[in-house]
From TrEMBL, chain A:
It comes from Oceaniovalibus guishaninsula JLT2003. One of its GO terms (cellular component) is plasma membrane. Required for the export of heme to the periplasm for the biogenesis of c-type cytochromes. GO terms for molecular function: heme transmembrane transporter activity. It is found in: Cell inner membrane. Keywords: Cell inner membrane, Cell membrane, Cytochrome c-type biogenesis, Membrane, Transmembrane, Transmembrane helix, Transport. The chain crosses the membrane at residues 12-37, 43-64, 96-119, 125-150, 157-175, 187-213. The keyword ATP-binding does not apply. Its main location: membrane. Belongs to the CcmB/CycW/HelB family. One of its GO terms (biological process) is cytochrome complex assembly. It is a multi-pass membrane protein. The keyword Zinc-finger does not apply. This is Heme exporter protein B.
From TrEMBL, chain B:
This is Heme exporter protein C. InterPro entries: Cyt_c_assembly (IPR002541), Cyt_c_biogenesis_CcmC (IPR003557), Cyt_c_biogenesis_CcsA/CcmC (IPR045062). It is a multi-pass membrane protein. PANTHER family: CYTOCHROME B_B6 PROTEIN-RELATED, HEME EXPORTER PROTEIN C. GO terms for cellular component: plasma membrane.
Amino acid sequence: MIRLILRDVTLAVRAGGGFGLGLAFYLIVVVLTPFAIGPESGQLSRIAPGILWLGALLACLLSLDRIFALDREDGTLELLATAPVPMEGIALAKAVAHWLTTGLPLTLSAPILAVLLNLPAPGHVWLAASLAIGTPALSLIGTFGAALTVGLRRGGLLLSLLVLPLYVPTLIFGAEVARRGAEGMDLSAPLILLAAVSAGSVALLPFAASAALRVNLR
Amino acid sequence: MSQAFSIWSYANPTRFMATTERAVPVLGGLAGGLLALGLIWGFFFTPDDYRQGATVKIIYLHVPSAMMAINAWAMMLVASLIWLIRRHHVSALAAKAAAPVGITMTLIALVTGALWGQPMWGTFWAWDPRLTSFLILFLFYLGYIALWQAIEDPDTAADLTSVLCLVGSVFAVLSRYAVNFWNQGLHQGASLSLDKAENVSDVFYYPLLVCIAAFVLLFVALVLARTRTEIRARRLAVLEARERME
């Protein structure tokens, strides 16, 4: 499993893996926001937590269809299915690799991009914390969606239609943590709920994803 | 045949077709009759509400469709579970057949709610928890139906949509509470509950019950009719495949 994670991370980081694409997309979303909203700093700082969360979510969505599609094309997925690792483990490893190449860079870059949107100073820490806790859930839900659509030729659009409604609770709690953090309010309730969503996803979604994978490889 | 009655006997498509052939017209007629009774009673023989005026009568469409929108998803969940556990094709097809009916009910609830909200709250739409969770439910239905249509092999499609329905149910419930947490609402609490204190008044209550019964029957009749169509479509596909083989 660890080898699989390392392999996926290496493939993603090397040329053509699309590693930087998500980050670049995130940067562009953040840069475009003031053009759409207007440059007043008060207004920007009010919407900053929401935009930063939404941008991270969409950037995460971009790379989802790569999770299984390439391995499916060259037959690696069939080999993995016959490997002495349970399918659930493969799904989890894929999700971890996706998080390491998408969720983690997004989390680390969010406080820097937050400067552009004039997020109040105490918000930076909580934004990073909420993304660090919330993005694993995004990766796991996305892995489940990718497993559902791996057999389809043009699954990309369908994948977003399936995954985005599932992202609702994570987005609500995550953005709420970031917002309350920026305004210096008590944020323990949404933080705990966000962690619960993530922990539940880690515990349950690998099983759902592997069930979908088995059906698709039949 | 002294076979004990069991719901599982309807897993046999032939048996299902034979029974529903007689059941669908009866259920459909009953639904139509009750709907006519409930709506006419509700629209013409109940007084206007003292604050809401005549707009209160939207309740006869709004509440039943909203209830069925949720119940349809619950029925799909049960049917999906039956398919995953016992592999009865009729069950998978019933889940497939229920989805368009469910999304229509969701849409009716959303539209009648918007029409009701305009005169009462002064706006067609507010990001109220109940409204928002219905919109999310609508998106879940969309994804479910889209997944059915995207996959060609019927068994694969049934498996994958069932898994999606299970995971989706968990997240739909989660979204419901997340949305509650996120915003306090304009919408009133439950219109119908065992706790009489917050019920609607009796004048509206009985025609509303009739309408709800009508919507339940309508839903059952539509789902059965659509399941019959799906079974026939499946048989047709088999016949065509056989013809190509020869």
